Amino acid sequence: MNYTALIIHSPHTYQYALKLSTRFSKVDFLEVTKPPTKKIIKRKKDFVIGVGGGSVIDTAKIIAGNRRCIAIPTTASGASMTPYAAIWKKNKKTSVKTRIPILEDYKNVIRLPYKVLMSTYFDALSHNVEALFSKYATKESNYYVYQSLKLFEHYKHTNKINILVKAGDYAGKAIAITKTNLIHAISYVLTLEYKINHGIACGLLLPYLIEYINYPNLNDYFNSKSFKKIIKEIRETFYPSMLSLIPKNLNAEIIVTKALLYSKIHDSIKKVTKKTLIKVIEKIIQENK
């Protein structure tokens, strides 16, 4: 093919990127190991391809601008389905508008380190829950959540990460409509202030904030017999293996004060106040000492 391309990859997807390069006449490679910042140099190529997780694909979307971008996801981040990319500054996470990329499946069997797997699992699960919790939810977004959670169930019975990635794609479609809200707003503070991995922060918050919101008919989406069973299963997946990644110096007042600076925190169906959120975060801290 007489086209040029920039292929953005993670350290784990470099060999796959090399295979992709045979499609093009001239290729540059860019390795990404962390989420994008504003210091991104845009390169003039016919195609920009991102093969990897959310940070890789968000970087590809930003660099591509209005050019053709192909996303080949290897995690359940859902970044290949959204019209924006995350920018992590020193003290705040922001988003920039992008085009939705062209989706292409990763052809190999996906293998992820356990921490990365758990991180992307809880990130995608949070996307689903927040799409349901959102005051901007629609029939279409709820449909995507339903399809995603069906694939989550399939993944739990097969342990095939490629299925989990597909579940993440559907969750990405849902939040492309609703955007994220309560869980992600608080998770940003945990990541920026306490250096907790983004997906792990979501996993820590999920059972407590599901309990706090108390969404009606949640059982139907999770195909579960009871509300308590949903919370119990999420906790059993997260604990105790991820608990060692949570620092012991969490401060509820600081976390909630900074989380309230994100306007999206008010986009869930339940009204939130500083007082009630501090109680939730204090409960998390007390139960996870």
UniProtKB/TrEMBL annotation:
InterPro entries recorded: ADH_Fe_C (IPR056798), Alcohol_dehydrogenase_Fe (IPR039697), G1PDH (IPR032837)
UniProt keyword Chaperone present: no
GO molecular function, one term: alcohol dehydrogenase (NAD+) activity
Ranges for domain Fe-containing alcohol dehydrogenase-like C-terminal: 119-215
Listed GO biological process terms: phospholipid biosynthetic process
Keyword NADP part of the UniProt annotation: yes
Pfam families named in the record: ADH_Fe_C (PF25137), Fe-ADH_2 (PF13685)
Keywords: Cytoplasm, Lipid biosynthesis, Lipid metabolism, Metal-binding, NAD, NADP, Oxidoreductase, Phospholipid biosynthesis, Phospholipid metabolism
Name of this protein: Fe-containing alcohol dehydrogenase-like C-terminal domain-containing protein
